[in-house]
Amino acid sequence: MELVVYLAGQIHDDWRDKLRKKAEERGLPIIFKGPQENHDRSDDIGEHIKGKQPNAVYRDQTASEFNNLRTRVWMQKADVVIALFGEKYKQWNTAMDAAVAIQSGKPLILVRPESLVHPLKELAQRAQVVVETPDQALDALAYIFE
Questions:
Q1: pLDDT digits over 2-37, tens only?
Q2: Domains, the chain, with CATH or none
Q3: pTM for the full predicted model
Q4: 76/100 Cα distance (integer angstroms)
Q5: I want to staple 78 with a disulfide (CB 3.0 to 4.6 A). Which of 6, 61, 67, 115 is the partner?
């Protein structure tokens, strides 16, 4: 059995690469999917497909159409969603993805530092598991295979 795991969260660092590598080192049969990790590609995709937009607002809206399509397809195929919240970035997309996972009945592993306990308390109550690090989320996935 393989699990498809959607990795929701910011795309500004290599947390996904680290998680993929650790899962591979542990021999876990997991296929990871997630948002477009190339930030420029994510921002440019709307104009790449639809052409030049009249201003930045339309550029963002057009890009979000295709990014939301990608997210919806991969989240629907996912067996589990990991939503990573951290200290550095405003994470509106992560919150939206976590809420969609909950609404879709997808098991959710919420990763958040102690400092975000209060702002994420309602979301945490709907998740199957709440942890503080991506390594703990990986341990939760590994437990499924025991």
A1: 999 999 988 888 999 999 999 999 999 999 999 999
A2: 3-35+77-144 (3.40.50.450)
A3: 0.93
A4: 10
A5: 6
Exposed/middle/buried for 30, CB within 10 Å: 0-12, 13-18, 19+? buried
Give the model's pLDDT for residue 92.
86
Spacing of C-alpha 31 from chain mean position: 13
Query: Which pair of structure tokens corresponds to residue 124?
Result: 């945490």
Q: Helices H, strands E: what count in the chain?
A: 6, 5
Question: pLDDT (tens digit, 9 = 90+) per residue, 89-103?
Answer: 778 889 999 999 999
Residue carrying the six token digits 């059995």: 1
Confidence category of residue 88, pLDDT binned at 50, 70, 90: confident
Torsion sign, CA atoms 54, 59, 64, 70: positive
Pairing of strands 129-131, 108-111: parallel
